[in-house]
Every structure is written in structure tokens, then in C-alpha cells.
Design brief:
Layout (H helix, E strand, L loop, with lengths): L1 H4 L4 H26 L7 H17 L4 H23 L6 H23 L26 H5 L4 H19 L1 H11 L1 H6 L4 H27 L11 H11 L4 H21 L9 H20 L18
Amino acid sequence: MEALEIFASASLWGAVLRIATPLIFGTLGALICERSGVLNLGIEGIMTLGAMVAWMTVYQGGDLWTGLIVAALCGGLFGLLHAMLTVPLGLSQHVTGLGITLFASSLTYYIYRLSLPVSSSPPTIEPFQPLAIPGLSDIPFVGEALFSQTAPTYLAIFACLATAYVLARTPLGLAVRMTGENPHAVEAQGLDPIRIRIGAIITGSAFMAVGGAFLTTATFNSFFPTMVQGRGWVCIALVVFASWRPGKALLGALLFALFDAYQLRLQHVVESAIPYQVFLMVPYVLSIVALIVMSRRAKVPQALMAPYRKGER
């Protein structure tokens, strides 16, 4: 019974939103890239870079929002690098993405150690504080769970809604979607698929970096190189789970976060004879199962990972 009573706790659902926030940003970033036809496996490294850059900006005296902006700019810069290698040059998107992850992660660690060579423990900053919404945050249960979050969490939800609207309802979104389906048809309409893909990758990578920045400016108050802990790869899987739709991406991120938040509380309920590693792997196992079920019906963008050459068909 105690295991079921966890679901009646407002703190569980509040934690679900907090855990889901970096996943929402990362999944949206990967989704935008893939909707334009480019797979970005650099997400893990870009999130790690974003986490460090945002933290370092605040640690050096900048405010929290400046940290997020600087992280987005750095993520966009690495997105530009990935775009220039994969779009005009047509290099392997798998190899380039993995290279971006290794490069960004290594550069992050190098800059961190260069800035703090003798630090025995990570210095801390003052992170985002929960932002209570007047009236709504006082509602029993719902207010504590949904309306007492930090500002970046509300920003993540808004970004998801805005991305869904842009992709589904605007000419820009139509151009991005068609570039991921048939770039030659886009070219026939007088648009440049290369520019569209480059812009989408830069934008998506900026989202990824903000997802990493959330970890150091809201979830924690310090940086350590392994803090992303595979969230980037989870985001890649969530894009498939979502069938490349922002609304379902939000649902997938919340579902994974629910598994994660629940297992943390379940460890205190179940007998200690069960190794804690079993609980840690539960969210990933359940996510794999959900991915298998959902991916059978997923409609992959037809031009995903297909290099585009102007004038060729």
C-alpha cells in the first residue's frame, strides 16, 4: 500500500516536472533537428557544455538568465559546427554527432579545470528559486505540484507549446517539416533546404544547451562533468517515442520523469535487501519498453539522415 500512496504525494508530481525540464529542452532540440532531416548525436556533449557555461557565467558574476542565454549561444555555436559538417559537406551524421559529443565534453572538462585547477569540491552558486504563482500556488495539492516550480520549468512548457504551434501552423514550420520529408520539393518552391537545415540545427542545439544549463542553475547549484548522466541519449529515444511531435515529446519526458521520481521514493519503502541499482535501472527499462511499443507506429521523416545535394534527385 505504501508504494501506491507515493502517487498521492504532491512532492512526487512536483519532482516529475523538475526532472522532466531538461528532458523537455533536450527532446525539443533533437526533434527540431530531426524534423529538418538531420540527426544530432552531439546532444550529450552540448548539454554538458551548456551546464558548465551557465554555471561558470553565474559563478563569475552574471545573473541566472544571462547564464541561460550564454549557454544557448554556445550550444548554437556547436550546432553550427555540426551543421556545417553534415549539411553542406554531407559528412556522416552519426560520426559527426559523436565527434561533437566527445569534443564538447572534453572541452567542457578542460575549461572547468583550467578555471578551477585546485578546487577540491565544486563551488556553488545561488540557483533559481521556486516561483509561486499568486492564487494558483495556494491550491491544495495541485498548487504545490504544478505552480511552485522554477521559472525555467515554465519556460520549458511554453517552449514546447510554441514549438508545436510553429511546426504545425506557420510557413516556417511547414518549410522545416518539408525539408525533413522532401528537400527537393522545398527547393522547387524557391527555398534553400541547406539554410533551413542549418537554422534548425542551430536552434535545436541551443535548446539542448539550455536543458543542460537547467541542471546547474535550477536543479543543482554546482557543476561536475558527469552530471548530465545520459540524459542526452534519453532525449534521442524520446523523439522516436513522440513520433517527432512536440506534444507527445512533452508526454514522454513527463513519463520518464515519473519513473525516475517514483523509483527514488520507492527505495525508502521497499526492503533494503534489493540492491539500489535495480531501482536506478527501472526508469530506463520501462522507457525502452515504451519506446518499442510506440516506435512500431512512428512515422520517420523520409529525408532523415539523407544528405541533400542541390539539383540532385
